[in-house]
Task: inverse folding
């Protein structure tokens, strides 16, 4: 256990929400909106470029992080660690966290800044990393970790599925050491990786293996690609296994968990998983109806919404479970 607390949270989604009917017009696409709403649970989303907003990943991070810092009641100069969790960075290099630190602190500071890229499990990894660094480095007082997604920037114009699912957004936590009156604790994590699945879905052009060329763009090999169909039962199999593993690891029962927050990719999957682990659906959180699927941002976005509406209270025990392409799966167990 690590004696840290979430001191403040922040959320940012660009522009006015776009419902499914308007999305079809703005993106000039067709998709089954009834299935998208009833099965997947997505009724609207925020996509900057469809609203004519010239903001990208670093802008989303900056907005969310500044709100979290304000809500934490700390000065921007006191933050000594910036981590951005994403697989849709502002640039290949420099790291988005470095860019965001410059925008937030606006000077050279004695701070650390780096990105964590583990596809849609990135925030779970970043949360665990930040907790560990705070626990071992007494010179860092506060950490700012931001999960962010800008996948619509990588969706090709004819990708109706991509536009109907993926959305822009960011959410941030400010972490610090808890005081003696707080129950807050970072209990621990459980991770799982299977790199043999690297060629299922991803962005395969723009890195060292395949630098951007006209030929690759003309052949429609740029942007988000699904090279193989994902197993339909993947998360239904993985998430109960992860829940069981982390709870056993930290001697905790499923009934002790007050809130289960899963990757917000498919509402029907979360319903099945809650049934599989024998827990009431009321313990699960759903924000895909408001924000669409926001990848590395969806866990902290769901948490922020829960805190904002009063559903999540201090002292509640929370379990995060996130999975993403690669395959990468991460989980965090903590007391708010």
Result:
């Amino acid at each position: 256990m690590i004696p840290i607390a979430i001191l403040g949270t922040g959320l940012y989604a660009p522009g006015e929400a776009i419902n499914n009917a308007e999305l079809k017009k703005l993106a000039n696409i067709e998709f089954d909106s009834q299935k998208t709403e009833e099965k997947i649970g997505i009724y609207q989303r925020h996509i900057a470029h469809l609203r004519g907003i010239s903001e990208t990943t670093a802008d989303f991070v900056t907005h969310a992080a500044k709100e979290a810092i304000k809500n934490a009641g700390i000065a921007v100069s006191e933050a000594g660690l910036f981590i951005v969790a994403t697989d849709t960075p502002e640039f290949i290099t420099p790291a988005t966290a470095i860019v965001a630190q410059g925008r937030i602190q606006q000077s050279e500071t004695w701070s650390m800044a780096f990105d964590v890229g583990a596809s849609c499990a990135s925030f779970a990894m970043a949360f665990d990393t930040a907790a560990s660094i705070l626990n071992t480095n007494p010179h860092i007082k506060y950490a700012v970790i931001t999960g962010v997604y800008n996948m619509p920037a990588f969706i090709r114009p004819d990708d109706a599925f991509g536009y109907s699912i993926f959305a822009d957004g960011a959410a941030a936590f400010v972490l610090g050491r808890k005081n003696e009156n707080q129950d807050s604790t970072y209990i621990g994590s459980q991770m799982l990786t299977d790199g043999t699945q690297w060629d299922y879905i991803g962005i395969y052009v723009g890195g060292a293996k395949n630098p951007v060329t006209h030929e690759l763009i003309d052949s429609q090999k740029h942007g988000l690609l699904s090279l193989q169909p994902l197993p339909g039962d993947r998360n239904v199999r993985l998430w109960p296994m992860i829940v069981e593993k982390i709870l056993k690891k930290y001697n905790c029962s499923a009934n002790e968990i007050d809130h289960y927050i899963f990757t917000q990719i498919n509402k029907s999957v979360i319903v099945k998983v809650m049934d599989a682990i024998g827990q009431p659906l009321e313990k699960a959180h759903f924000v895909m109806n408001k924000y669409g699927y926001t990848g590395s941002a969806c866990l902290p976005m769901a948490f922020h919404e829960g805190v904002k509406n009063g559903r999540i209270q201090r002292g509640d025990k929370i379990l995060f479970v996130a999975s993403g392409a690669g395959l990468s799966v991460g989980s965090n167990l903590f007391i708010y």
About this structure: The longest strand covers residues 168-177. The chain has a mean pLDDT of 95.
